[in-house]
Amino acid sequence: RHLTRRPMPASKGTKRKATDGIIGGGDTKRKRIQYSAQLMDILGYEHARVSGKRYEPGQQSLYSEDLEVMGWDFLLENVDMPEKDFERKLDRMIKTTDVIGKLDDEKRTKYQNSILEAQKLAYSKLYSPESTKSVGKTRSDGLRQRKKVEASKTDDDIKASKKVEQKTVEKKVDSEIVYEFGGPIGAASIMIISHLIMYYLWLAVSEHEGNLFIPSISDAYAIYEKCAPKADIWMKYLTFIFFQLVLGMALPGFEMKGLPIPSEGYKCLLYNCNGLGAWWLTLAAAIYLEYTNKAISSLSDRYGELMTVMIIFGNLVAVGIYLSGFILGRTYRMSGNHIYDFFMGSWLNPRIGDFDLKVWGEVRVSWFTLFLLTFSCWLKAFENANYNVLDVHPGLHTLLIAHWLYTNACVKGEECIVTTWDIFYEKWGWMLIFWNFAGVPIVYTWNSFYILKTNPPMPFGCGCLLIGILLVTYYIWDTANSQKNYFRMQLRGTYKTRPWYVFPQLPWRTVTHPAAILTERGSWLLISGWYGFSKTRKIHYLMDILFALEWGLAAGFRNFLPYFYLVFFSSFIAHRGIRDNERCAKKYGKDWDRYCSYVPYVLIPGIW
Q1: Among the listed residues 131, 174, 390, 377, the one whose alpha carbon sits nearest the alpha carbon of residue 264
Q2: Spatial contact of 456 and 503, defined as CB atoms under 8 Å apart
Q3: Which pTM does this prediction carry?
């Protein structure tokens, strides 16, 4: 690259061009550094700046922001050059850019030395120069070089000891059995109440115009009459499940490794992220079936039957996975109480060969079903409006866009899901299975059925405003999740730019020059991007709560029940945030305290 441009441009998406030359006298095993996160990890720098290692918020930098960025980008671009070549190129860069005009001689020398020292350190760690491997030829050289070798061994021993200690702590935290959700009694109560809630919500929208009500005998009879599934609805649902299984197993995809799993000997499981292909094929199939025999819009007329099928099937899958954990000897983190263990799960990563059932259930079953149910309501409303899109309730437009965006985000960023709490830590028990197969599709789409059945008043302009607010919420949610997960991937060298047809790829989805805390256990905690801007550790959860609020607003203010999901989800997500905070406090110790001092709020900026 010619360095005559003023100033030197930053590398897009924190990425440098990886050259194919050979360094070190024919060393073909070169380590390519492509991202700022990787270079930070090698140097031990807590922010992508050339002036120092430890990050302190509000600290006065030695150089202006543009010089810090220019120096860092130059280092990232040329870190694999031999020392003399790098020094010559750096000298040329300083002379041909505006560094000379911005720094006096003393500061310019310090600036240049900072970059040189960082490159020397990174190069030595990457390519292990021969001077640190061999014992010297003369007595004096030999003494100096033996000291280097001995020091290196001492450093390696210390690092190895720390790594063993850190893994011990991590494995202890990962395998620790703690009664959550109120223990066995709480778990049993949640399982019972979850079934009752779903039938109550169905009765409210089907028999009581969306109002709160006190159940009666007539309501029980309505459930018997209208929710008992006929054979054809079973066939439709099972065909859908089989279709998704075939797509999940057969389609090529984007391969991604998950996080090291302590219970698997720190093995990184490989995931075939082919959700995007499955999503578009599912949409194509849905449009075809609707066009030929109205198979999708008719689902809205059989809401109760379909709900019962999902409930039964979800329970059967939960029982099957729980028993298979024992049969195959894959049980993990078991309390010994079958009620609680059934609720939390017996098996962490149930698989059929390399096909991961937990990721499949979380992405394909729950969100695909959710979108198809809302799409069914929208199509029925479109039909009722004599196919005039402007006469469809604005709230249904809002929910259709919201649920399409959310489902599409799950598949376009499926590689991010494999490193989340649900996949890495939570076992695939009743809690996840039932809500993947039944709870999410039914409870989260209740507002769609409510709007279809009751047609609550809403001016068209209010609907347009709500869609605008929804899009802003989506942008923050999507980019915050991307920043966190892409930073992890860049550290591990697994990040890959997705092709153009994986959309939307939003601005600021990666942090170009991140800041992060380096913990004693060697992992990193991101403190920049949305997390640094909002000072909130769960800013993505806050956006989920705002989604729930916006879905409620789409149904107006006539009744309380459209906001049930908001109350339910907010309490659930707040509980998860507390659980995550407790686990991280044990895992990271004093580093977590430091992280919390930089990102002090859990969920709501300035409040909590």
Answers
A1: 174
A2: no
A3: 0.83
